[in-house]
Design goal:
It is built from nine helices and nine strands. The protein is an alpha+beta fold. The protein folds into three domains: 210 residues, no CATH class; 66 residues, 2,3-Dihydroxybiphenyl 1,2-Dioxygenase, domain 1 (Roll), CATH 3.10.180; 59 residues, 2,3-Dihydroxybiphenyl 1,2-Dioxygenase, domain 1, CATH 3.10.180.10. The strands form two sheets. Strands 5, 6, 7, 8 and 9 form a five-stranded mixed β-sheet that branches. It has a four-stranded mixed β-sheet with strand order 1-4-3-2. A hairpin with a 7-residue loop joins β3 and β4.
Length: 369
């Protein structure tokens, strides 16, 4: 259901805090009402002894009130989501979101689709709302997903499953009237009550996490507005994006660069030609990355570990030389010299797992040097 929808960025960020406050209040109201109603039901509460019709009318009015608040909370959340997504396009112009705008509404109701689309929409909004934005053309499917969004969505799905299970077990226990089924009925009712309790707890957690997500994304976007809006786009005709590096094995190379040097795995795919494409990048870098290519010929095999004929061929820049030097040494990186200071900055040469010589460098122009 993903789409390559072309983004339509707005000219400027628009206020989002009022939408967030309304959504938060209504989500909190629904969460509290759901919890109270479930607790009263599980506790066996019933209407006081009154005329049956009056009790039925009172229950119907409360049910309608609950449904109305629930509907308003859903509308408020979707309205906030529309504004948040519009602002996200302004913060990260040129980045296509995974789903078209109609899915902000339809994604909650279409079966199967509603199991993953709403989470994907929130993930994309979160990723593109970060101050500074994402580089145009960034593939959002390769951006790390926030744990908070995962927790919210899993508790939301879990609450729905628990409620369904509780209803099924309770109905099953009620239908078992025969004496020989009495024990089974008790078991079914007990399990139904346990499922109902789990549903209440998960629903409360989902509501609180949803509020937290609304507040975090709102804070990110308001911080950009307070700073004067998105940073102006840097129009460039070209820049260095990828540097290829021949390796013996993809998996061991990925293990070293991500596990030892702390790089990010940007891409690990197998295009139609069958050749694996693996791209890694230093944390925090925005452009240049390494394209790892497994040696496929004797000539390439001979170049593994000797990319530049013995000289340092790659330089890893850092904003805190002592921190990264000690971290890398602790992880097993072999440095061939003690750190030294040159006119251009602090530097030390180290080897990767194949013997390629790298320079760890903190330029003199960097803060603190």
């Amino acid at each position: 259901m993903t789409s390559s929808t072309s983004p339509t960025p707005v000219r400027s960020l628009r206020p989002i805090r009022p939408f967030a406050m309304v959504a938060v209040v209504l989500i909190a109201a629904v969460t509290v009402a759901s919890a109270v109603g479930s607790i009263l039901h599980l506790g066996g509460w019933s209407w006081p002894e009154t005329d049956g019709r009056d009790a039925l009318n009172s229950a119907a009015r409360l049910l309608l009130l609950y449904a109305a608040v629930h509907l308003l909370a859903g509308i408020a959340f979707v309205c906030w989501l529309f504004r948040a997504r519009s602002n996200a396009y302004a913060i990260s112009p040129g980045v296509a979101h995974s789903y078209a705008a109609p899915f902000l509404v339809l994604g909650w109701f279409v079966p199967i689709v509603n199991l993953f689309v709403p989470k994907g929409i929130v993930d994309d909004v979160w990723a593109t709302s970060r101050p500074g934005g994402l580089r145009p053309g960034t593939n959002l499917l390769q951006v790390r997903r926030p744990g908070l969004v995962w927790a919210w969505w899993l508790t939301w799905i879990g609450a729905g499953c628990a409620d369904t299970l509780a209803a099924v077990l309770t109905a099953l226990g009620t239908e078992m009237d025969a004496e020989e089924e009495e024990r089974a009925a008790e078991v079914a009712s007990g399990l139904g009550a346990a499922a109902a309790v789990a549903g209440v707890l998960l629903a409360i957690a989902a509501g609180l996490l949803a509020i937290r997500i609304v507040l975090v994304i709102t804070r990110l976007q308001e911080a950009v507005r307070a700073a004067g809006g998105p940073a102006p786009s840097r129009h460039r005709t070209s820049y260095l994006g990828l540097v290829s590096l021949v390796v013996r094995d993809y998996d061991e190379a990925v293990g070293f660069y991500t596990g030892v040097l702390g790089f990010e795995l940007l891409e690990d795919t197998e295009p139609e030609d069958g050749r694996r494409r693996v791209v890694v990048r230093p944390p925090g870098a925005e452009e240049a990355a390494l394209l790892l290519e497994r040696a496929a010929t004797p000539e390439q095999e001979a170049r593994v570990g000797d990319r530049t004929g013995g000289g340092p061929g790659l330089f890893l820049y850092t904003d805190d030389f002592p921190r990264d030097y000690e971290r890398m040494r602790s992880a097993g990186v072999v440095f061939e010299e003690t750190p030294r200071r040159e006119p251009y900055g602090a530097v030390a040469v180290f080897h990767d797992l194949y013997g390629n010589r790298w320079g760890l460098l903190q330029p003199s122009s960097a803060e603190g040097v």
